[in-house]
Design a protein that fits this description.
heterodimer; A: alpha/beta; Rossmann fold; GMP Synthetase, Chain A, domain 3; 2 domains; 8-stranded mixed β-sheet; 11 helices; about 30% helix; B: VC0802-like; VC0802-like
């Protein structure tokens, strides 16, 4: 076992004690240095000394993405600029960016999180790791880079884009691990096929470290089938660290949360009450070690569940369900709640279409228009109109069965929908608000 | 005579067909004939080119979904009743026509049609018989 994985197996009493001790340091630190947090505690009538047990954390106020926007750029920064070593920013989807100033210790803990995920996936210093996440303000590229370097891997920092060259390097240098968004990997695979590169035959690729966007089990299976690699899930968010907050082990159907650094809670997003392990709700994180921009009870908007019971791998860190939906992503179409991930799962049941799609919503005078564009695969092309129509009908039937709606299905040509090198946008909602 | 037809997926938006034709022209591939089939949302363009292997390759590289299919070319006498004779032969053989379109040819006494049958071999035997 890599020594870096040792904390993964920490006995639970020791882990809980450590979490409480860290919280008892963090809460007074935050109270003293971040006016917004202090004001909210005072409004609730709660003082740092009220944190006596872990359950007492529920008395403290939440933080939200809007707080990061409102307090942009430095309102939530707890450390002086002399201590700050790095900025990461996230654009979100609208309005001002959020900015997370970090100290060197913060970056080190983030790095450790990624390295522990990679070690758990079976990646070792013998691996050649190609980082095809974007580098820069986005945490994907640098996070994977530092994590792999920490493990002693050979890192190939290609960044995103320039796909044909990426494939050439992958082949020539003998890349064994690729880190990117699942949608970018699908794009890589399409380009590889076009230029006659077979991942199984022509590359040494074994592992994919995929994150930064919600993806379904169906996409994972599609990726593993088409490329012969093992697809690993890495979870994280810039507000808390970056990638490496949680990852899956070979046994669990979910992701171990590195809760010695990132304390998870699940809340009911309506009542804001903490839910017991085993129940689904909104994932909330508290950064136990962060100095630059600590987050107390940060509401991720991600829907998940903390699983009950021990994992076969022996790790004591709790397992969260993989995030297949964000509460922000939910669409209400003709009065029905729809998550894009449900649409994706339906599409993946039809082998003649590619995992590239776009959901488009618009308003007519009287009602909402709901349209899905999906690419046909080159292999499913037929000279027969009725065969192509049958593909369209199968897609429609699959969506009708699971979602209960009948969107207009538009088959489009392979490669015609936009590809993304970072987080992909799969919904265009032009309805009147 | 059996020949290779190439069929290309066509999105229902302007500029699609010209993109295909430009891609072929750039590699000096000549289109002998083509036909369009369309539904409300998408279409299939079927064509006979002078080099189907190269044609397929060029279009696939340009990102089009393309497939090769065997079709039958049949000569029809260019006079009243010419087509009827051909159809009667096919009826007797019991083959179904999935689609058909005309082959462009210089002026002459014959017309050439392209057919896709449910059973090309059987249809061809019937036409020769």
């Amino acid at each position: 076992m890599n020594p870096i994985s040792k904390p993964d197996y920490m006995p639970i009493p020791e882990l809980r004690k450590m979490q409480l001790e860290k919280l008892q340091k963090l809460i007074p630190y935050e109270y003293e240095r971040v006016p917004l947090f202090r004001r909210r505690c005072d409004e609730k009538g709660v003082k740092p000394r009220d944190l006596v047990t872990l359950a007492d954390l529920a008395k403290f106020p939440f933080m939200k993405k809007t707080d990061l926007r409102d307090e942009y750029p430095y309102g939530l920064t707890a450390a002086p600029m002399s201590e700050i070593n790095r900025f990461h920013c996230s654009s979100g989807t609208t309005g001002k960016p959020i900015c997370i100033p970090q100290t060197a210790e913060d970056v080190a803990i983030w790095t450790e999180g990624v390295a522990r995920c990679m070690a758990m996936y079976g990646i070792t210093r013998d691996d050649i790791v190609q980082v095809s996440y974007g580098y820069g303000l986005f945490t994907g590229g640098l996070g994977a880079h530092y994590g792999a370097e920490k493990l002693g891997c050979a890192v190939l920092p290609t960044g995103a884009g320039n796909t044909e060259k990426q494939i050439m390097l992958m082949k020539d240098l003998g890349t064994t691990v690729i880190c990117c968004t699942p949608s970018y990997f699908l794009h890589l695979a399409t380009v590889a096929e076009k230029i006659g590169v077979d991942f199984r035959r022509d590359t040494k690729l074994k592992h994919g470290v995929f994150g930064a966007e919600p993806w379904t089990d169906e996409i994972r299976e599609r990726i593993e089938q088409m490329s012969g690699i093992t697809a690993h899930d890495i979870y994280g968010l810039t507000e808390i660290a970056g990638p490496g907050v949680a990852g899956n082990c070979p046994y669990c159907h979910g992701l171990h949360v590195w809760e010695d650094h990132f304390y998870p809670e699940i809340i009911d997003p309506d009542t804001l009450e903490v839910l017991p392990d085993g129940e689904e709700g909104e994932l909330v994180f508290t950064t136990l070690d962060r100095v630059g921009t600590p987050m107390v009870r940060y509401r991720t908007r991600d829907l998940s569940r903390l699983q009950v019971g021990e994992c076969k791998c022996g790790r004591t860190m709790r397992v969260m369900d993989r995030v297949h939906a964000r509460s922000d992503d939910m669409l209400i179409i003709h009065g029905v709640n729809v998550f894009p991930s449900q649409i994706e799962a339906c599409l993946m049941k039809v082998p003649e279409v590619a995992p590239h799609y776009m959901i488009e919503l618009s308003s007519t005078d009287t009602m909402d228009r709901f349209e899905i564009k999906v690419e046909v695969t080159a292999d499913s092309m037929s000279d027969s109109m009725s065969k192509m129509e049958a593909v369209r009908k199968r897609v429609a039937a699959s969506i009708k069965e699971i979602v209960g709606l009948s969107p207009k299905i538009m088959l489009v040509a392979p490669g015609s929908l936009p590809r993304s090198e970072g987080k992909i946008k799969r919904v265009i909602d032009n309805r009147r608000k | 005579m059996t020949v290779k037809q190439i069929s290309i997926f066509l999105e229902n938006k302007p500029g699609q067909l010209s993109g295909i034709c430009r891609a072929l022209a750039k590699d000096n591939i000549n289109i002998a004939t083509l036909s369009l089939a369309d539904s409300a949302d998408f279409g299939i363009v079927r064509m006979i080119v002078d080099d189907h292997v190269k044609g397929c390759d060029v279009l696939a590289k340009a990102g089009f979904a393309v497939v090769q299919t065997d079709v039958v070319m049949a000569t029809v006498p260019d006079r009243p009743g010419g087509m009827a004779e051909i159809m009667e032969k096919l009826d007797r053989a019991g083959v179904d026509i999935e689609y058909s379109y005309a082959y462009a040819l210089g002026s002459g006494e014959k017309a050439i049609l392209v057919f896709k049958f449910d059973d090309n071999a059987k249809a061809e035997a019937a036409l020769e018989g």
